Amino acid sequence: MSGPHVVLAGGGLAAVRTAQALRDLGHHGRITLVSEELDEPYDRPPLSKEYLLGTRGADDLRLATRDEYTRQDIRLVLGRAAVGLDLRTRTLTLADGGEIGYDRLVVATGARPRRLPDLPESGRVHYLRTAADSRRLAGALTGGARVAVIGAGFIGLEVASAARLRGCRVTVVEAAPQPMAPIIGAEPAAWLRRRHSERGLEFRCGTTVERSEERPGEQVLFLGDGTVVEADIVVVGIGVVRDTAWLAAAGLETHQGLVCDEAGRTSAVDVFGAGDIVCRHSAGRCRPTGHWTAAADSAARVAATLAGVPHAGLGEDGFFWSDQADLRLQFAGAASPTATVVSGDFDSGKFVVHYTEGDRLTGVFAANAPRDFLRGRLALRSALKEVRT
Ligand SMILES: Cc1cc2nc3c(=O)[nH]c(=O)nc-3n(C[C@H](O)[C@H](O)[C@H](O)COP(=O)(O)OP(=O)(O)OC[C@H]3O[C@@H](n4cnc5c(N)ncnc54)[C@H](O)[C@@H]3O)c2cc1C
Q1: Residues 216-225: pLDDT tens digits?
Q2: Nearest CA, atom 23, ligand 1
Q3: Which residue puts its alpha carbon closest to atom 15 of ligand 1?
Q4: pTM for the complete prediction?
Q5: Ligand 1 contacts CB of residue 318 (under 6 A)
Q6: Domain positions in the chain
Q7: Structural element, H or E, at residue 356
């Protein structure tokens, strides 16, 4: 086989998409994907949605079949974590002491849930990142269970909605004044809270967990506002952290993630980054990526960079979607204090909001209005292009 040996550290969307795109672009060298998980690579969004609710099985989550890996000659090394890197000898060290040499390395190790300090790990406490986490959580979401969800970001609200559909009694604790307020802005966030409240979610917003006690049969959370939440299970969804220590130790530039340029290049010539592990520095800010579309886009970029062809992508616009019970939410860009409903209305639960600064469109948010959202997103892309040029 001719061509460089590409090793992918990580076994999620970004690693698989990079490998597949490389083959599509005619890469003839070896491709090896090294994942710490024993499960074959799978897609994560259903873990807080259909998989958690049991309406999609594990086979449906696979990012590729065994046959596809064989056909594309992508070698999977599963259940082995990368823990060290020697840039000089181009060697990846694995947790079991094994080593893999590479010509080009793509780091696609994703992110991990941020732990809540002062909440000891116990059978009652859940975090959600892997299929195993989702299975464990599904087993605990039984009818009538008291569920405390800490963090009303998109994963917290998806889990809270799923728990409600399972007949649980759900309390959501959120530091911001409204759920998702830092992302979608005050007015849409107030609507979202009303909507979820009507469906039985109880909110404690503008407060945080100060301490917690495990008592027989329950976990008790003491909140900063003086109230108490008694729960059978606690689900924490307060964002993610990126495991960069081993990359920094190897000499790579890291910040909130692995620092990469738009083409996925890192500070080392033969090392690239894709997916949630990546952060980009622009306009003096560190911007970590953390959504599905951005991960897929960065994989396509890295593959193009490795293959030496231009990438035809449209550019990152911060798009994500979130399914919360009967709501399909879609967001792109950035919220601003000026949020205008441009189609539909809050009452119907079907609308599109445009965020503007002066005349400039900065972001789009929609509930149950995919077509109108798409129109807004295209307008946003044009606006972003103008800013970049
Ligand atoms: C529950 C959940 C729901 C989500 N829902 C949505 C959604 O609705 N919309 C949306 O836009 N985005 C959603 N996302 C985000 C989206 O799934 C991620 O952006 C995407 O999975 C990122 O892909 P990735 O390959 O970079 O990282 P990951 O998917 O995290 O994959 C990284 C892989 O690398 C492995 N790994 C980590 N460290 C090492 C190591 N040192 N050595 C070897 N392997 C390692 C990990 O175990 C993992 O298998 C969701 C995420 C989660 C967790």
Answers
A1: 999 999 999 9
A2: 13
A3: 291
A4: 0.95
A5: no
A6: 6-111+242-307, 125-236, 326-388
A7: strand 350-357
